[in-house]
Amino acid sequence: MRKGKRKPLTAADLMAKLNSDPEYVAMRQRKEAELQARVAEWRRAEAPLVEELNAAGFVVNSVWDLVNTSEPYPDALPILIDHLQRSYPSRVREGIARALATSQSKCAWEVLTRLFREESAEDAKDGLAVAIAAAADNEVIEDVISLARDRTQGPSRLLLLRALERSKDPRAQAALIELESDPELETQIKIILRGRKRRRR
Asked: Comparing 106 with 197, which gets the higher pLDDT?
């Protein structure tokens, strides 16, 4: 007699099974405690920035509150630019950089590009790439192209492609075609170029 097919395990069944495993529960609690400790460390570290932002009229508990708001905050940019150049944990530096992801941050172009080149922590480097891409215009597009070409800058270069995708400057299009052979960038560039081709139809 053939055995019937085993009933597939649902997500709820799987979670119930995991939650009944003492080792899994202990591991999850340990990871949660580690995360909470890191969050507390980041909050303590960014306290000087939060205090200065609050004193300037920006009611935030973390710089990430600025990242996640849709309200403009041009008067906060000088404070953010100043603190971006200070020694903070990489997660805080990432938040500051992402909060600078606005066209108005072009005033700090030299700072952003210098720190991007110097940064070694991937999360902070990603944040800087996002800020550079948002601040870039055709006047500085060659700087973006130069950073995107530099393979020593690693996978964060992917986030710079947003500036090249947005630009109508012929140099940006030429750079995208050139960089299509770069293994780290080729998949995203193919998507960008296909999108441009469809829009031209």
From this structure: 106
Which pTM does this prediction carry?
0.81
Share of the chain above pLDDT 90, in %: 73
Q: Is the dihedral of CA 67, 68, 73, 75 positive or negative?
A: negative
Cβ neighbours for 140, distance < 8 A, ≥ 6 positions apart:
106, 109
Residue with tokens 């507390």: 40
pLDDT tens profile 9-28: 687 777 777 677 777 667 77
- My answer on whether 176 and 92 are in the same domain is no
Rounded Cα–Cα distance for residues 22 and 18 (Å): 8
Please state, in angstroms and rounded to a whole number, the distance separating the CA atoms of residues 1 and 50: 70
Rounded Cα distance, 166 and 143, in Å? 15
- Does residue 62 form part of some domain? yes
Same domain, 123 and 36: yes
The reply to whether 92 falls in a domain is yes
Residue 26 has what pLDDT? 73
Dihedral sign for Cα 190, 191, 197, 198, please.
Answer: positive
User: Are the beta carbons of 128 and 97 closer than 8 angstroms?
Assistant: yes
Tell whether 117 and 146 lie within a shared domain.
Answer: no
> For residue 85, what are the domain limits?
27-135
